[in-house]
Amino acid sequence: MNIKKARRMVICAFVAVLLVAAITAGSVVAYLKLNTGTVQNDFSVAPEHSPVIEESFDGTIKQDVKVDIGNPGYAVYVRAAIVITWKDGENGSVLGQPPVKDTDYVIVLNTTEWFEEGGFYYCRNYVNSDSGSGNDSPVLIESVKLKDGAVVPAGYTLNVEIITQTIQAAGKTDYTEIPAVTDAWGITVDADKHLVDPTP
User: What is the pTM of this model?
Assistant: First the structure.
């Protein structure tokens, strides 16, 4: 056997080994991608850190509705959704046809310190928290009540539900200079750290 032929055989054998290694590695990677499960992290919020709705209600008028942010130990921005429905007094079911503002009910909102965007009401200023106790947002709903002469569906009552969220006011998202509230809620923050109403 001449030297050239021997070299060719060695090179062919080496290429074959590399090809087998590449195919095997590809199979292992494919197997890992197809069969590796996901890991879910569940986080819970301590009760003292959860926002709570505060209000006064005399049986006919709900008023002075605001958010107690609890005691997270840092300042937060607050937003809330107001959901108004006809609710069955016996089984709690909700009527498919919602009540109509200014026809079935009258609501007065604090639009000086809150603005509406995309179905949520945003508190313009962040709310502070201290180590002693939770702090309240400004009043969101000054009052809400059935309108005089409203036709209430039989067996139903006017139900006003406030769903609220808070987010830490300080800090930015990882690896960016975007405030966390802007990243999460899409609301801009001005130089004084007030939320900016996108509608002039």
Answer: 0.73
